[in-house]
Amino acid sequence: MFLTSMRLLFFYVFFVWLKASLATNILGNETHVIALLQFKESISNDPYGVLSSWNTSSHFCNWHGITCSIKHQRVQQLSLQQCQLHGTISPYIGNLSFLRTLNLASNSFYGEIPGR
Ligand SMILES: *[C@@H]1O[C@H](CO)[C@@H](O)[C@H](O)[C@H]1NC(C)=O
Ligand SMILES: *[C@@H]1O[C@H](CO)[C@@H](O)[C@H](O)[C@H]1NC(C)=O
Ligand SMILES: *[C@@H]1O[C@H](CO)[C@@H](O)[C@H](O)[C@H]1NC(C)=O
C-alpha cells in the first residue's frame, strides 16, 4: 500500500514536471511568449503578414525576425526592418530580458521605446 502510493506520487510529480518542461521547451518561456504576442498585438497593420508565423504552433525562436541564443533559447535579436509595420511598441517588449538588438527600421512605429 505504501509502495503503491509512493509510486503514484512519483508518477504525479513526474508528470507535473514533464508538463511544465515540455511547455517551456516546445513553446518557450511563457513570459517571453506573452511579451512577443503582446508586441504583435500592438501592431495594427502588417501588410506582408510577416507576423503570421508568430503563433503558438511553434517555438518563438522559429518566428519570423527572431534570433535566439542557441544555448538558452532566449530572444537575442528582433529584426523586422522594412516590413511596413504600423503600430505602437508594446511595453511588454521590456520583458524580453535578453534582447540585445531591436531593429525596426523603415516601419511606422509611434510612441517611445520602453526602457528596460
Ligand atoms: C522566463 O523568463 C523570465 C524573465 O526573463 C525569468 O525570470 C524566468 O526565470 C524564466 N523562466 C524559465 C522557466 O526559464
Ligand atoms: C502559424 O505559424 C506557422 C509557421 O510557424 C504557419 O505555417 C501557420 O500558417 C500559422 N498559423 C496561423 C493561424 O497564422
Ligand atoms: C511584462 O510587461 C508588462 C508591461 O510592461 C507588465 O504589465 C507585466 O506584468 C510584465 N510581466 C509579465 C510576466 O508579463
What does this 3D model show about the protein?
A three-stranded mixed sheet has the order 1-4-6. Strands 2-3-5 form a three-stranded mixed sheet, with no helix packed on it. The chain has two helices and six strands, in the order H-H-E-E-E-E-E-E. It is of the alpha/beta class and 116 residues long. It is elongated, with a radius of gyration of 18 Å. The model has no long low-confidence stretch (mean pLDDT 87). Strand 2 (66-68) and strand 3 (75-79) form a beta hairpin. The protein has helices at residues 2-27, 30-41; strands at residues 43-45, 66-68, 75-79, 86-88, 101-103, 108-110. It binds 2-acetamido-2-deoxy-beta-D-glucopyranose (NAG) (3 copies).
Q: Give the N-to-C terminal Cα separation.
A: 54 Å
Helix content: 25-40%
Helix/strand order, N-terminal first? HHEEEEEE
Amount of beta strand: 15-25%
CA-based shape: elongated
Estimate the mean pLDDT confidence.
87
Bound molecules: 2-acetamido-2-deoxy-beta-D-glucopyranose
Radius of gyration: 18 Å
According to DSSP, the number of beta strands is: 6
- Count of helix runs: 2
Query: Biggest sheet: strands side by side, in what order?
Result: 1-4-6
The assigned structural class equals alpha/beta
Main sheet specs: 3 strands, mixed
Low-confidence parts: none
